[in-house]
Amino acid sequence: MMKYSTYQSIFPMNLENLQETRKEGRARFMQIITNTLLLKLLIIVIVAWIAGAGVLTVFAAPSASKEEVTKLTVQPGDTLWEIAANHKPERMDTRVYIEGIVRINGLEDRGVQAGQVLKLPNF
């Protein structure tokens, strides 16, 4: 086996340039990593902000207070549709008003019984 070689590279070996290139490469790598982490952090903050705004919007929805409801006793033969049609605001869709009645009274089905007391929302 050969112990020594007479091989000489055709490229000049400049160690200073090599070290500078490595330092620049490390700096560029760190800059890329930092930028990537900052971008991910920014995306997380934006998603959290949007989600928080959505949650606040849901909880900030107006709810009917005690003074915003009218009580009505259901008469024999009354239907939810008739009650809604007679008590809803003029330009409101009857179906929307029925949903309001169902929501504030916690009705599971759409049927009403004579003598039942319903809260009617005032929009």
From TrEMBL:
CDD domains: LysM. Signal peptide: none annotated. The keyword Cell cycle applies. GO terms for biological process: cell division. The keyword Transmembrane helix applies. It comes from the Bacteria. Pfam families: LysM. Keywords: Cell cycle, Cell division, Membrane, Transmembrane, Transmembrane helix. Residues 70-120 form the LysM domain. The chain crosses the membrane at residues 37-61. This is Cell division protein YceG involved in septum cleavage. It comes from Paenibacillus peoriae.
